[in-house]
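Shall we go through a protein fold together, starting from nothing but its sequence? Label the sequence line and the structure token line clearly, so we can match residues to local backbone shapes. Would you write everything just below, so we can both look at the same thing?
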Amino acid sequence: MFLSQTANLGYNNKAAIFYILSPISMINILIFYTLSGINQNNFFVFALSPFTILHFTALSETLHLYSSTFLFYRLTIHFFLCYSRNQNNMRKEYQLLMTTTYDKETDPVLSREDAIAILNTPDDQLQDLVDRAAALRYKYKGNRVSIHILTNARSGNCSQDCAYCAQSCRSTADIEKYKWVDEDKLYHNNDFVNEHHLSRHCIGLSGMKFTDQEIEELARRIRKMKEHGTHLCCSIGFLTEKQAKMLKDAGLDRINHNLNSSRSFYHNICSTHTFEQRVDNIRMLQRLGFEICSGGIVGMGESKEDIVDMLLELREIQPEALPINFLLPIKGTPLGDADTSGLTTEYCLKVLCLARLLVPQSDIRCAAGREVYFKGQEKKLLSVVDSIFASGYLTEGGQSIQGTLRTITDAGFTYEIESA
């Protein structure tokens, strides 16, 4: 009754309720922690106590008008938390407290100018930016990191001329080439995902167009892997609607199709298809009900404005996963001698923070380049991203699965299966 009546009050009256309830809740907090300390269970008893629920209800109504008071309230709560007995749970519980009063409507809505300014953030202000991104990371993804492994199911001999890729028609890189990976390896990798409770098995196939017969061969393999309940994603170029439905019927969950760069820069890295073709392909796949994984590559000579424009396009797409690759120049490709000196850890982290701020509900994945550009900075990295690869990429090696698990746990995060 009381809460329904407050909904009809003006903001001044709501503010009065807020200030009346603040002392009550502060007393409630003080008594609670003095008598019992804190652990993972009684924290939620506190969170559900009547005074606190009432306080947070009024607080949520006046937050945007009384942000400074709310900041003081959060800091006061944190003061009590810091003196609690169970220090190991404090960060998780504090992050939960920091996010319980927010909703989608309070997520940042950045303009293009805002986004460019973020990439120009001075390095000495980077931690503030990381904190902003981390708040959204914990809000939507909690403390977990999803781990994926990638099987290169078809390698080389691609008809496309993508400048970064060792498998393209322009590449002279010394890589293994085959039409289909050995099925034993494919199924072994699939078992590996399940045995280690990883999030997803990602399967890459070189090429942009496929025959219906080739798609049926892939569908047969997908059906076999889905017998174990593995969540599957395929990176497979352009599909006809008929072919996409064949894979959907086989049980394929997700398709990766990266934008790679901005619309205006795309012609610099590929001439055999267009940026718009990629967007059209993604839209068709979304209509059919596929989850979408779509991101890009940083370090190909693009400007900061290009990075922003790519991420703004991805905000319109709203992919379930948004992987950011940081260029690993491969000898034999047109970008084999690219200057990557601008890919400092600080700049790369700004790109990932911007991705989180623009598309906060997506899995933000640090893909290729993680082991190179973030070495020694894994804890800060994982406070922004919630998804990584283990055991390498399509034609490049990467950190082992055991090393990846250690990286995650040493940084204070957990890993778990995302989908069965």
